[in-house]
Amino acid sequence: MSFLSPDYPEIIYNGDEGEISASFRKADSPPDYDAGGGTTFHYLSTKLSTDGLFGLYKNRMGPQPGGTSTHFHKTMSESFYVLSGEIHVFDGERWFDASVGDYLYIPPGGVHSFGNISGEPAEFLMLFAPGAAREGYFEGLGLVAGMSDEERAEFFVRHDSFFPDMTKGPASESWETRAAVRRSFKTR
Questions:
Q1: Do the Cβ atoms of 127 and 62 come closer than 8 Å?
Q2: Which positions ≥6 away from 32 have C-beta within 8 Å?
Q3: Global pTM value
Q4: pLDDT recorded at residue 185
Q5: Max Cα separation, the chain?
Q6: Integer Cα distance of 24 and 43 in angstroms
Q7: From CA 132, how far away is CA 175, in angstroms rounded?
Q8: Closest CA relative to residue 53, chosen from 76, 25, 85, 34
Q9: Which strands sit side by side in the sheet containing 39-45, from one edge to the other?
Q10: Are 38 and 48 in contact (CB under 8 A)?
């Protein structure tokens, strides 16, 4: 007999009593990965730690222009929540300057992009649901320049990231050009 409203997912925990299984991470914990240039990642909840339910990452981008090209994912949604600074986000139709408290949700298949063109550091949360092992993607991005076109495209497919030009991936758009254009006008 199910006692849950049909608005809830299937029962995952079948115990009759709760268990001690929570995890806590202090705000001053060092980043799990430093990509250089002021970009860091905190792996708050991973596919492994949530049994694949979701992945939550805190990303800090340095002040220099940078970001990812327009892309989509086939297996997961992605969400952004801005903690500090400002990031430039694309919802598949329009670009926005997203600042503290702004939120963007992208369902599976939704075209999107994000980056920093503000000239200041920015911090934001990235939520992937269901969870995927995005750590391998984040840490592998620094190696894609040394890959062949075929290896690069295979890396992106393996990490569920589909770009218009799979041989260039996230580097196919110029964030320096976007930053220069932004100086002449703002979307917000």
A1: no
A2: 41, 42, 43, 135
A3: 0.90
A4: 59
A5: 62
A6: 12
A7: 27
A8: 76
A9: 33-36, 39-45, 55-61, 122-129, 77-84, 103-106
A10: no
Which residue stretches of the chain are H helix? 134-140, 149-158, 175-184
Element at 115 (helix H, strand E): strand 113-116
Residue 92's pLDDT is what?
94
Which pLDDT tens digit goes with each residue over 59-76? 999 999 999 999 999 999
d(CA 50, CA 27): 19
7 confidence band (pLDDT: 50, 70, 90): confident
With H, G, I as helix, E, B as strand and everything else as coil, classify residue 46: coil
Q: Which residues contact 63 (CB under 8 A, 6 or more apart)?
A: 38, 116, 118, 119, 120, 121
- 188: confidence class by pLDDT, cuts 50, 70, 90: low
Other C-beta atoms closer than 10 Å to the C-beta of 127 total 19
- Bridge-partner residues for 56, per DSSP? 45, 127
